[in-house]
Design brief:
The chain has about 130 residues and is α+β, with helices and mostly antiparallel strands. Helix content is about 25%, strand content about 40%.
């Protein structure tokens, strides 16, 4: 596996961990995967910062072991520049389908890969 493939694999693993209900329910575990400068534009169109998302994540869908879980598909990662990877994918959560794009960055080996930006868009029924 070359360096770009290893970076892509590490970021995809982080993306999948953020969909894990145990991680979503734990502010501490989620904080390990989010960049302190993180910003999200959610499927609702609402903008959230690092602190806002960490405060709300345990109450968001997909955070309960007994509730619906995110089902990702078509996940791909592309190294855009040294220390910067974009991930794109689609998810289902119950009957809701959405498309996602995330930017992950790594400042150094110690800090590891962290999600810097995330954007989600709901896919209306009937749209392929």
């Amino acid at each position: 596996m070359d360096d770009e493939q290893a970076q892509a694999a590490a970021v995809i693993a982080g993306e999948l961990r953020l969909m894990d209900p145990a991680v979503r329910a734990s502010r501490d575990r989620a904080a390990e995967l989010l960049d302190p400068e993180f910003v999200e534009v959610g499927a609702s169109g609402r903008r959230s910062t690092y602190q806002q998302l960490l405060a709300e994540l345990p109450d968001k869908p997909g955070a309960s072991a007994n509730g619906p879980r995110y089902e990702p598909s078509g996940m791909t990662a592309v190294v855009l520049a040294p220390g910067l990877v974009q991930v794109t994918f689609e998810t289902r959560l119950g009957d809701r389908r959405s498309r996602h794009s995330s930017l992950w960055r790594r400042h150094d080996e110690r800090s590891g890969w962290r999600m810097y930006y995330h954007h989600a868009t709901v896919v209306p029924r009937g749209v392929e």
